[in-house]
Write a structure and sequence with these properties.
The chain has six helices and no strands. The chain has 148 residues and is mostly helical.
Length: 148
């Protein structure tokens, strides 16, 4: 019973921390840029165009360079992705998303390391993965090659 109450307290603290992130300047920037992107008809058109090309790209990739449309589809998807990524509201959203992801990665790392340096912390950021001497924790077959 005590463990259940303790777990509930920890989860409540995590909810409070999440609210702090949401209400922070980074959180507000993220949600504002998401709103702007979703309400920008040109950005949405570019996203839809890229998504439809992605489906075609996956189909072409099944056959590789032997598909008759291979070169054309590869070129089109690269142009579409670049066009989409350079659109101002999409670029702003991606920047805000990356900043928010960075603070979430850093928080995960700090919490994990506060418990133990052997705790595996999920992160898509290679900066944080190299912070411990054993990239991924002992027993994970990390960069230190330990198997303890």
């Amino acid at each position: 019973m005590l463990a259940t109450i303790e777990r509930a307290d920890i989860l409540q603290s995590a909810d409070e921390l999440a609210q702090m992130v949401i209400q922070s300047e980074l959180g507000e920037n993220y949600f504002q840029s998401l709103y702007n992107m979703r309400n920008d008809s040109e950005a949405q058109r570019k996203i839809r165009e890229f998504s439809s090309l992605k489906d075609l790209y996956e189909e072409v990739q099944r056959f590789g360079k032997y598909h008759p449309e291979y070169k054309r589809v590869n070129l089109e998807i690269r142009h579409s992705k670049r066009d989409m990524d350079l659109h101002p509201t999409i670029a702003e959203f991606k920047r805000a998303e990356t900043e928010l992801q960075g603070i979430l990665d850093e928080m995960s790392l700090k919490i994990g390391q506060a418990v133990s340096f052997n705790i595996k912390v999920p992160s898509g950021n290679p900066f944080f993965e190299s912070q411990s001497s054993c990239g991924g924790g002992c027993g994970s077959g990390g960069s230190c090659s330990c198997s303890a």
